[in-house]
Design brief:
single chain, 612 residues, alpha/beta, Rossmann fold, GMP Synthetase, Chain A, domain 3, 9-stranded mixed β-sheet, 23 helices, 28 strands, 22% strand, globular, binds adenosine monophosphate, lipid metabolism, long-chain fatty acid-CoA ligase activity, fatty acid metabolism
Length: 612
């Protein structure tokens, strides 16, 4: 086993770390005391204008909602499910449920009815918060489940059933309770301690039924405090938040804000991100790798031809050459410095402006970020650092340091988190952020939580300074018939990074003589390409079958193969008719590809690829 050297924590760090709030509700109260009138959240109103909530206003709304939940009979640790997109009401409902002593069970708005019913039954949900009529319908389809619910809160709209309360109703119920008993919510917060269950997040896993990861209040208080001590983020920062809050990465961002006190602008609509960045001008943002891949692919596509293309390619090659100097903190040689200045003026400054113009850094997490994509951003002067964690560790366990980034690594552990690399390379984690286990899953718990160490299933390497590099997942390794191991994530990452038209790639080859791939095209990107190449008017699925598109993709696959070991290269591929989707069960709600399910579905097409 290999241990990471302890982070340069300095004396007193442990005591500082222990000095944290006793619960999420207490974190809110502490932040309100520090920053009452300062801005906490920015969100769009009905007319799409940005509007702000101060910490005081946030507390007032949260207290009304929490009192409303108490008025509806919410009991300590009783489950409150939230099924909604990323929006201010999600955050307020989450805080309210936790302040009232309840435990939030997150449900992706895209999760199908069957899984919604499974999750809600497994968690034993008492009160369901649903975004709209569509989410309500999913809960209602299971009559027994619906019957057992104490109440349903609807964020948008209302419903005649007396069990259903509108958002305004809930606030009204809360106001009435607070008039009778002004201390009701404070008392509920006081009853909630570090070990009280705060959150159940179901990991959809890429196989089997979802498992509910139980996270207590201290896990969130710890996450907030540990990242605060890392001194990466400050109260003056502005975050742009669009990640799904049903996923642990999004949830952790809320804990960081609660502890550190920066402003969060929230809008979960992907199509609004670009506008939002320009309007909010955030200083940092977190995202999944796909969003960074998309930005890069868009820019590359927009600058493919003509003089503009030449200039962009020149600028990026100059940027690439500056990387070793900048990473080492060394000055650029004079000639290169002049070229980099010009590249910035001509190309990079525009890109930075599109990200709002004030971005200090961005954080990628929840899956591996391709080093190629990370380098591309860094070449342009935009830093994307990686963080690493799992639902079972309440997200952040490692994060790279923007002050001295090591690209390709996920950085070092946050203070208070310990890591070991097992003999087979598996990453094991221990610390206050690690969950006590899955809800009602004795067998899985015995397998994954051993002597306080959580077995992540990820394969990683630690360097001498304790920086971790995630190289693969334990279960995903493919063994070819030649006995060579292939890390599918690596091959898929390189294919996606090298082909601006590919949105998803699934690599196959278990027990086969070579590696093949299923490639799904980005419908927008391929439609644009078709319009530019006299093939306009065809649907993405028609284009997927067009010989010219095949030729185009084949060229990119060849280029990607140059970056792979011989036994990893993709010899043949199928272009899929459409993107893999959550609806068809091919992708988890957190957008992880269910490789097994996809391979089973397309087995005949894959088999054809091995026919000589
Ligand atoms: P989830 O519980 O859905 O957040 O998934 C956790 C898994 O995501 C981990 O076990 C890793 O396989 C993967 N993951 C998260 N962050 C990273 C990262 N920075 N690099 C590589 N894989 C990651």
């Amino acid at each position: 086993m290999t241990d990471a050297p302890a982070r340069a924590d300095g004396p007193g760090r442990e005591a500082q770390l222990r000095d944290r709030s006793s619960s999420v509700g207490q974190m809110l109260l502490d932040q309100v005391e520090r920053s009452g009138n300062r801005e906490a959240f920015r969100h769009r109103d009905a007319a799409e204008r940005w509007t702000s909530l101060s910490w005081n206003q946030t507390k007032d709304q949260v207290f009304e909602l929490a009192a409303g939940l108490l008025a509806l009979g919410l009991e300590p640790e009783a489950r409150v499910s939230i099924a909604a997109t990323t929006r201010i009401e999600w955050i307020l409902a989450d805080l309210a449920a936790m302040c009232a002593g309840g435990a939030v069970t997150t449900v992706y708005p895209t999760t199908q009815h069957d899984d919604v019913a499974f999750i809600m039954n497994d968690a034993g949900v008492s009160i369901a918060v649903v975004e709209d009529a569509e989410q309500l319908e999913k809960v209602r389809r299971d009559a027994e489940l619906y019957d057992r619910l104490r109440a349903v809160i609807m964020i948008d709209g209302d419903d005649p059933d007396e069990k259903v309360h509108s958002w305004q109703d809930l606030r009204e119920l809360g106001r009435t309770l607070l008039q009778e008993n002004p201390g009701a919510v404070d008392e509920a917060i006081a009853r909630t301690g570090p070990d009280t269950v705060a959150t159940l997040i179901y990991t959809s896993g890429t196989t089997g039924r979802p498992k509910g990861v139980v996270l207590n209040h201290d896990a969130w208080a710890y996450e907030g405090r540990a990242v605060q001590l890392f001194a990466l983020l400050h109260p003056s920062d502005v975050q742009f938040l669009w990640l799904p809050l049903s996923h642990v990465f999004g949830k952790a961002l809320l804990a960081l804000q609660l502890q550190i006190g920066f402003v969060t602008a929230v809008d979960g609509r992907i199509e609004k991100i670009v506008d939002g960045l320009g309007e909010v001008r955030p200083t940092w943002m977190a995202g999944a790798p796909r969003i960074f891949e998309k930005v890069r692919a868009r820019v590359m596509m927009g600058t493919q031809g003509g003089v503009k293309g030449l200039i962009a390619r020149w600028a990026f090659s100059v940027g690439q050459r500056t990387i070793p100097y900048r990473l080492a903190g060394r000055p650029l040689p004079r000639g290169l410095a002049a070229q980099y200045w010009l590249a910035d003026r001509l190309v990079f400054s525009k890109l930075k402006e599109r990200m709002g113009g004030r971005m200090r850094f961005m954080v990628s997490g929840s899956a591996k970020l391709s080093t190629q994509v990370q380098n591309w951003f860094y070449a342009a002067g935009l830093l994307v650092i990686e963080g690493y964690g799992l639902t079972e560790t309440s997200a952040v366990t490692f994060v790279d340091d923007p002050r001295a980034p090591r690209l390709g690594t996920v950085g070092r552990p946050v203070p208070g988190t310990e890591v070991q690399i097992a003999d087979d390379g598996e990453v094991l984690l221990r610390g206050p952020g690690v969950s006590g286990g899955y809800h009602n899953r004795a067998e899985a718990n015995a397998e994954s939580f051993v002597d306080g160490w959580f077995h992540t299933g990820d394969i990683g390497e630690l360097d001498a300074d304790g920086y971790l590099r995630i190289t693969d997942r334990k279960k995903d390794l493919i063994k070819t018939s030649g006995g060579k191991y292939v890390a599918p994530q690596k091959v898929e990452g390189i294919l996606v990074a090298n082909c601006p038209y590919a949105s998803q790639v699934v690599v196959y080859g278990e027990g086969r003589k070579y590696v093949t791939a299923l490639i799904a095209l980005d419908p927008e990107a391929i439609t644009q390409w078709a319009a530019d190449n006299d093939l306009g008017g065809q649907s993405p699925s028609e284009l997927a079958r067009h010989p010219k598109v095949r030729e185009l993709i084949s060229g990119y696959v060849d280029r990607a193969n140059e970056r792979l070991e011989r036994w990893e290269t993709v010899k043949r591929f199928v272009i899929l008719d459409s993107e893999l989707s959550v609806d068809s069960g091919e992708v988890t709600p957190s957008m992880k590809i269910r490789r097994g399910a996809v391979v089973r579905k397309y087995q005949p097409q894959l088999d054809d690829l091995y026919e000589d």
